[in-house]
């Protein structure tokens, strides 16, 4: 059973098509260059390198050994450091796998969906080694029971991450500390349904449009416009999953141009909003 893939996209596709999981490992400084959402949850273990991680409404500094937990409704983008090396494991896991492997009063979902969800956790060296060992154990092909063996290892990773969350889920985490960038993100997230311009966002972040553009590109690795689009698509996915119509969703998420909504949604998610709604509702 193949579970390691050459690209993050291939790992997501495998997890989505099988309603299982897919793993991407890389040491190259080549993360995706756009804010994105997908239909899988994600466990991101950074071993070395990395600069910042934009997840929904927060920007986090990345330290070696940091663990990020993301659900399928959170738009995100990682920014690599300039060191030339960025080692990380990424486990993409479909929600169906998470719930199918939860048993009794032991759920594997809280780390992704809990009301007090923490995006960034900092495991100990021993806990990092344990997670790395589980990931690496899934590279091997086992002559007997290979698929069962790897599904068990993926479940162990989910169990370990939920254990970390249950013991440190209420702990304070370090978020990014650039005030202007965080103010801009906060303003966008509170007003994504309205018409937003760079000038308006910059005004509410108390910097010039040119300065905000430079700061956003430096620390978030994207533009204000692309972040706004990512936020709107994230909220659109939530509404469609709740059964809202495509038209109502487009208007509620700030897309006054229906054709633009269809085009932007398909580009970000892979399918048109109508098809996405029919598949998930």
List keywords for this structure.
alpha+beta; Jelly Rolls; 6-stranded mixed sheet
What does this structure look like?
- The protein is of the alpha+beta class.
- It folds into 2 domains: 4-168, Jelly Rolls; 179-280, Homeodomain-like (Arc Repressor Mutant, subunit A, Orthogonal Bundle).
- 48% of the residues lie in helices and 16% in strands.
- The protein is built from 12 helices and 9 strands.
- The chain has helices at residues 8-18, 95-100, 110-113, 125-137, 146-168, 179-191, 198-205, 209-220, 224-241, 246-252, 258-269, 273-280, and strands at 4-5, 21-28, 41-48, 52-55, 58-61, 67-70, 76-79, 85-93, 120-121.
- The strands form 2 sheets. The protein has a 6-stranded mixed beta sheet with strand order 1-2-8-3-6-9, with helices on both faces. The chain has a 3-stranded antiparallel beta sheet with strand order 5-4-7, covered by helices on one side.
- Helix 1 links the parallel strand 1 and strand 2.
- Helix 6 (179-191) crosses helix 7.
- It starts with a strand and ends with a helix.
- The mean pLDDT is 89.
Strand content bin:
15-25%
Report the end-to-end length measured between terminal Cα atoms: 30 Å
Number of domains: 2
Give the total of beta strands.
Answer: 9
* CATH first level of the largest domain: Mainly Beta
Largest sheet: 6 strands, mixed
Number of helices: 12
CA radius of gyration: 19 Å
């Amino acid at each position: 059973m193949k579970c390691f893939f050459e690209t993050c996209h291939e790992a997501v596709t495998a997890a989505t098509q099988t309603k299982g999981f897919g793993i991407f490992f890389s040491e190259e400084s080549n993360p995706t260059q756009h804010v994105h959402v997908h239909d899988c949850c994600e466990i991101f273990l950074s071993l070395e390198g990395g600069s910042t991680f934009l997840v929904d409404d927060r920007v986090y500094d990345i330290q070696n050994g940091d663990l990020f937990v993301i659900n399928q409704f959170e738009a995100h983008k990682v920014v690599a450091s300039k060191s030339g090396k960025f080692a990380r494991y990424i486990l993409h896991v479909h929600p169906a796998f998470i719930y199918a492997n939860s048993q009794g009063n032991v759920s594997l979902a809280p780390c992704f969906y809990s009301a007090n969800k923490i995006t960034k956790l900092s495991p100990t060296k021993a806990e990092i080694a344990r997670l790395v060992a589980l990931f690496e154990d899934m590279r091997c092909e086992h002559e007997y029971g290979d698929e069962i063996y790897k599904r068990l290892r993926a479940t162990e990773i989910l169990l370990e991450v939920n254990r970390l969350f249950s013991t440190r889920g209420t702990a304070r985490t370090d978020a990014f500390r650039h005030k202007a960038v965080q103010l801009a993100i906060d303003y966008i997230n509170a007003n994504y349904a309205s018409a937003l311009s760079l000038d308006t966002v910059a005004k509410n972040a108390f910097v010039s449009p040119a300065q905000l553009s430079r700061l956003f590109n430096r620390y978030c690795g994207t533009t204000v416009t692309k972040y706004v689009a990512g936020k709107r698509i994230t909220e659109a996915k939530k509404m469609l999953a709740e059964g809202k119509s495509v038209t109502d969703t487009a208007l509620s998420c700030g897309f006054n141009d229906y054709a633009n909504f269809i085009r932007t949604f398909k580009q970000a998610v892979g399918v048109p909003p109508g098809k996405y709604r029919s598949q998930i509702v």
